[in-house]
Amino acid sequence: MAQLIKLQDYVSRYETDLYRYPSQFVRLKKQQWEKMKQHWENDDLPPASPIIKVEQQEEERNSMKEKLFSLFKKKEAEEEELSNSIQPNDEEIAFEMDSNQDISTEEELKVSFLDLVFDFQLRWASSTIMEKSYVDNSYHYDERLRYLIQRFPDNILVMYNPILKIKHAPVELETILITPTGIWCLTFLEFEEGTAYIGSGERFWLKKWGDVETKVLNPLIGLRRMEGILHQIIQYAGVDLPIHKGVISRNGYIDYPQAPVGIQFLDKRLHNEWFQQQRSSTSPIKSVQLKAAQAILEYCQTTSFKRLQWGEQAVESGENQQ
Asked: 75-85 vs 62-69: helix axis angle to the nearest 10?
């Protein structure tokens, strides 16, 4: 599974320590799959809902947090120390499956496991130990997001609809895949099954479905803007990774007689070949890949709120200092 490192403007655990969480996720996923498979083979899946126990682990440590808070006067020192000392270990985070699920094959087990990990990734992409963001419920049912997360390999880092702060103005981008060998700027052009799109250099493209013809905004406008922004960011950070641009239409056809160079049109005829190329990559996550992701994350906007216990403790700490 690809790793969701940034979702819209939500706070992300990857933002707090990008060099730690990718490898931790890979280890955790492997451990939990082996554990769940063993339970299934022994026919002893625990009677639990498909939840992740991170929140419960954190609540059980409230008393320890309070003690740690009293040891430090400065807020910055408090947060740094607590973040390092109460992060849950890999073995403390568990995926649990409902034993009432009727799972008869290993393939069905894999599908259920992928759904659990997807929910887990949404949690990591919208919370840290101290902060949370309100997640739009639609992301839990977003087929496109599931496609990116569940079908691409672990070594790909995903940013989905990230909001960047460029010259003090928020700019929402589309989909960014950061791979070991390059960065993909992607836009999706998907409506009814079998739709044909006639590309041009104009502001609008022609969309044909059956006998119906309408216009859709030229997807290359946003794609070029996204590439331009990312190129400046990684160039400034001294990162040497190529940037690729692609228009994905898994259920339609794109016809662009004089298409500009440097853009791949991944429609129903070409998407699967490109997709398999991305899936077949066995390269480990590289330092240049993490450096590129870190550079982009530094420009990302984040909207979040303190978890309840942290907000209360911060107020108490301020009162004690007075």
From this structure: 140
Greatest distance between any 2 Cα atoms in the chain? 73
- For residue 280, count CB atoms less than 10 angstroms from its CB and return exposed for 0-12, middle for 13-18, buried for 19 or more: exposed
SS3 209: strand
Distance CA 64, CA 67 (A): 5
- pTM comes to 0.82
Cα(20)–Cα(12) distance, integer angstroms: 13
Tracing tokens 């799109």 back to the chain, one arrives at 197
Q: Which residues of 112-121 are buried (b: 16+ CB within 10 A; e: fewer)?
A: bbbebbbebb
DSSP states along 63-104: HHHHHHHTT-SSHHHHHHHHHHHSPPPGGG--B--BTTS---
Are the C-beta atoms of 223 and 189 separated by less than 8 Å?
no
Check if the beta carbon of residue 304 is closer than 8 Å to that of residue 132: yes
The C-alpha angle with vertex 15 and arms to 280 and 311, in degrees rounded to 5, equals: 145
Per-residue pLDDT tens for 186-216?
A: 999 999 999 999 999 999 999 999 999 999 9
Domain boundaries along the sequence of the chain: 3-41+93-307
